[in-house]
């Protein structure tokens, strides 16, 4: 933060970011070398947040910097009202984004990326999105809609056919609410006009994200048009992929930082000095050669996915709930708390890593060490609140599968039960210092009510079948959860963590 104060104290002229001012940007800022007027669309991306702009859009931009992929420009899209705010800001600066790479040694690299060509209006009936995806030039549709956006049924991990949005889209296929409904509608137009299929590429943190993407699109199509569902299943491709880069939310500090660099950008992005993207090479309508800029096409995506989700994503959840209850604001600060860091290392080493298959030449413990260093990067202001967001989806995707594996194999699950108890305690909505935890989950009201009841009767928390399924019926897990929740309320978070860490 001292460095940020130094940056803010500099007398720096500020240049508004748009196509006409690229040459006026400070000399240290890398900017597009390609002619943006020659870009044509090849990708529609749904869910234009910080991660997308630091990851997929960066890979496309880097190819364009090499004089390639100008026919793979990105059209941004959203299906929620809040996407309209991002649209207005990005269109105001010609869809350019400033990326600031931060590493723990203090080095910073600033780059303006320009792979995004346009941002569609956010229509209630998704008409603009459907028309854009029906364009023959679009060959890939990509998504970052968060883990909770795929309408998974917690009982069987299939498409939740009872969700009101899915029911609505099945009954109103020409004016859908969801991204998947819009995709189905666009694919119907493409089939009927002879344009052909496109590839659906998920960039979300879900194991088998391509498989889940396929089941959402095909499953929804089948509710209204079985022949179309068969056509999509037969002709479209949905590669699995593993994405990785820590990208904090943009707040006042990030806005101050980009202005200190001499750029007036309403939506800059900071990110760590690490990226990884591993993709199955199954694209039905062509693709850019992202391997030229660091991505890897592999037949082992599932192993990369499992390692990342169970170590990095689960590791984030191990840290975040304890930190939130104690009022620790950032992930790097949580890593500096000896007892929270000890919880992280013990749970990951003893209870998660045994269920993660190593990749050739890459022991899982070495990957854990890498994640440890990345989380401790104090140049990245990655808030605990961001990491803890949508726990009802993230615990289901990142923590509970390992608990199930531990119960099935006889491996320990004490620490994971403690992690779930910490989440329940956090969802009560009050920190140990008495301050309020603001709503941070799509089903926050239900979670807070259940957490309050669980204070006296812990089993109530595990009875949320949409999250836990039958896990509450496993005595080893249920008893451990109840023990830890009781201890947290009676003795506090630090005491519970210390007791767990000191166990053999």
From TrEMBL:
<dbReference type="InterPro" id="IPR013131">
    <property type="entry name" value="Mannitol_DH_N"/>
</dbReference>
<dbReference type="InterPro" id="IPR050988">
    <property type="entry name" value="Mannitol_DH/Oxidoreductase"/>
</dbReference>
<feature type="domain" description="Mannitol dehydrogenase C-terminal">
    <location>
        <begin position="300"/>
        <end position="488"/>
    </location>
</feature>
<protein>
    <submittedName>
        <fullName>Mannitol dehydrogenase-like protein</fullName>
        <ecNumber>1.1.1.67</ecNumber>
    </submittedName>
</protein>
<dbReference type="InterPro" id="IPR013118">
    <property type="entry name" value="Mannitol_DH_C"/>
</dbReference>
<dbReference type="Pfam" id="PF08125">
    <property type="entry name" value="Mannitol_dh_C"/>
</dbReference>
<feature type="domain" description="Mannitol dehydrogenase N-terminal">
    <location>
        <begin position="42"/>
        <end position="291"/>
    </location>
</feature>
<dbReference type="InterPro" id="IPR013328">
    <property type="entry name" value="6PGD_dom2"/>
</dbReference>
<dbReference type="InterPro" id="IPR000669">
    <property type="entry name" value="Mannitol_DH"/>
</dbReference>
<keyword id="KW-0560">Oxidoreductase</keyword>
<dbReference type="InterPro" id="IPR008927">
    <property type="entry name" value="6-PGluconate_DH-like_C_sf"/>
</dbReference>
<dbReference type="GO" id="GO:0050086">
    <property type="term" value="F:mannitol 2-dehydrogenase activity"/>
</dbReference>
<dbReference type="Pfam" id="PF01232">
    <property type="entry name" value="Mannitol_dh"/>
</dbReference>
<dbReference type="InterPro" id="IPR036291">
    <property type="entry name" value="NAD(P)-bd_dom_sf"/>
</dbReference>
């Amino acid at each position: 933060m001292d460095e940020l104060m130094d940056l803010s104290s500099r007398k720096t002229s500020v240049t508004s970011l748009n196509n006409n001012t690229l040459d006026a940007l400070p000399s240290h800022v890398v900017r597009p070398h390609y002619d943006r007027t020659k870009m044509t669309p090849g990708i529609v991306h749904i869910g234009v947040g910080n991660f997308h702009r630091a990851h997929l859009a960066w890979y496309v931009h880097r190819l364009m910097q090499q004089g390639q992929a100008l026919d793979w420009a990105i059209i941004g899209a959203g299906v929620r009202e809040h996407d309209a705010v991002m649209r207005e800001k990005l269109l105001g600066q010609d869809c350019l984004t400033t990326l600031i790479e931060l590493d723990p040694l203090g080095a910073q690299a600033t780059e303006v990326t320009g792979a995004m060509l346009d941002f569609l209006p956010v229509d209630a009936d998704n008409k603009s999105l459907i028309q854009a995806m029906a364009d023959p030039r679009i060959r890939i549709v990509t998504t970052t809609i968060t883990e909770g956006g795929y309408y998974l049924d917690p009982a069987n991990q299939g498409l939740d056919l009872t969700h009101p949005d899915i029911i609505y889209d099945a009954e109103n296929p020409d004016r859908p609410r969801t991204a998947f409904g819009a995709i189905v509608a666009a694919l119907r137009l493409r089939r009927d006009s002879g344009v052909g299929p496109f590839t659906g590429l998920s960039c979300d943190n879900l194991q088998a994200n391509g498989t889940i993407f396929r089941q959402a699109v095909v499953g929804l199509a089948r509710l209204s048009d079985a022949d179309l569902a068969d056509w999509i299943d037969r002709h479209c491709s949905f590669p699995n992929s593993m994405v990785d880069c820590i990208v904090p939310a943009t707040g006042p500090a990030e806005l101050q930082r980009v202005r200190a660099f001499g750029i007036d950008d309403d939506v800059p992005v900071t990110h760590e000095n690490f990226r990884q993207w591993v993709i199955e090479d199954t694209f039905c309508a062509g693709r850019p050669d992202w391997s030229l800029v660091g991505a890897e096409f592999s037949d082992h995506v599932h192993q990369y996915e499992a390692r990342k989700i169970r170590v990095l994503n689960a590791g984030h959840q191990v840290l975040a709930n304890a930190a939130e209850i104690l009022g620790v604001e950032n992930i790097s600060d949580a890593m500096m708390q000896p007892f929270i860091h000890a919880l992280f290392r013990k749970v990951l080493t003893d209870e998660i890593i045994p269920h993660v298959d190593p990749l050739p030449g890459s022991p899982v413990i070495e990957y854990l060490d890498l994640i440890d260093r990345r989380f401790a990067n104090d140049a990245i202001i990655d808030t605990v609140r961001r990491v803890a967001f949508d726990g009802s989806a993230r615990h289901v995707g990142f923590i509970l599968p390992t608990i199930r594996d531990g119960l099935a194999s006889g491996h320990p699950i004490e620490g994971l039960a403690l992690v779930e108890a910490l989440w329940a305690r956090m969802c009560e909505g009050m920190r140990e210092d008495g301050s309020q935890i603001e709503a941070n989950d799509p089903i926050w009201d239900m979670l807070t009510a259940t957490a309050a009841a669980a204070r006296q009767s812990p089993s109530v928390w595990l009875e949320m079948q949409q999250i836990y399924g039958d896990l509450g019926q496993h005595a080893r897990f249920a008893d451990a959860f109840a023990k830890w929740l009781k201890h947290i309320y009676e003795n506090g978070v630090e005491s519970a963590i210390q007791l767990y860490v000191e166990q053999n």
